[in-house]
Design a protein that fits this description.
This protein has 247 residues and is of the alpha/beta class. Helix content is 47%, strand content 11%. The protein folds into two domains: 148 residues, Rossmann fold; 88 residues. The radius of gyration is 19 Å and the shape is elongated.
């Protein structure tokens, strides 16, 4: 049975945009190796990928955008590789440029984009208010949405950095309801994480839709194996299904 919904809020990470980290490293590791070579280091592709993966899992702090990557993560990667401290800032800058160029090409190649744009267009055409709220940095999230061509479908985009509140804090979902300006029982949050998205949305009185991507990897900040007594109002694996579960 379709749910009566007037406003829909979307998560970004592993919902609107799938985690690109592994694909970016696969695509750009040879170019990264060339960066190291210019500074006198001859690391193997495997050494670079293993060190960066370890750093990405270990380094976590408020508002970090793991998809976009940030200097402290790369700096920790260089520390793992025992790169001279004096060389780390310059190497880190070059590696971030390489990574982010790879990031753009990976997310723009997402084969879900055409379907997602059609669904978002139809939802807006039906009068739904669409917003984004995601943990992360405002500039990074806006840029990711612009690269994919999704930004134009949303009335409003906000982040934990902009508000100073991270999911699953209830204050974040109270803020989401304010941006939607719709009754909470006719509002829905769409996300991939039971603990960060679904449970707190339900606690706020919203409807909640769990998006289950085909490739899901738990991380220190996203635990797909965590148990929850909360049940989503709907579960989807394809964005097209949104058109059947809301009215």
């Amino acid at each position: 049975m379709a749910l009566p919904i007037d406003g829909m809020a979307f998560d970004v990470g592993n919902t609107l945009i799938l985690d690109p980290f592994e694909k970016v490293l696969d695509r750009k590791s040879l170019e990264m190796r060339q960066v190291f070579s210019r500074f006198g280091y001859n690391f193997t592709v495997k050494e670079i990928k293993d060190a960066w993966t370890e750093a990405n899992r270990k380094v976590d702090y408020a508002f970090i955008c793991h998809f976009y990557q940030e200097a402290p993560v790369v700096s920790h990667c260089l520390k793992i590789l025992k790169v001279e401290k004096a060389k780390r800032p310059e190497i880190s800058t070059e590696l971030l440029i390489v990574y982010r160029n790879g990031l753009k090409s990976v997310i723009m190649a997402d084969d879900r984009l055409t379907s997602m744009k059609r669904v978002l267009y139809e939802l807006r055409k039906a009068g739904k208010r669409l917003v984004v709220f995601s943990n992360g940095r405002q500039k990074s999230i806006e840029l990711l949405l612009q690269w994919t061509g999704l930004r134009e479908y949303f009335h409003f985009v906000s982040t934990s950095e902009k508000t100073g509140i991270e999911k699953p804090d209830q204050k974040a979902f109270n803020y989401i309801l304010k941006t939607l300006a719709t009754r909470k029982e006719r509002s829905m949050y769409i996300g991939d994480d039971m603990n960060n998205d679904i449970s707190p949305a339900k606690e706020a009185g919203m409807k909640a839709c769990l998006y289950v991507p085909l490739h899901r990897v738990s991380t220190p900040w996203r635990n797909y194996d965590a148990k929850s007594r909360t049940r989503p109002d709907a579960t989807i694996s394809k964005f097209d299904e949104l058109l059947q579960i809301v009215k």
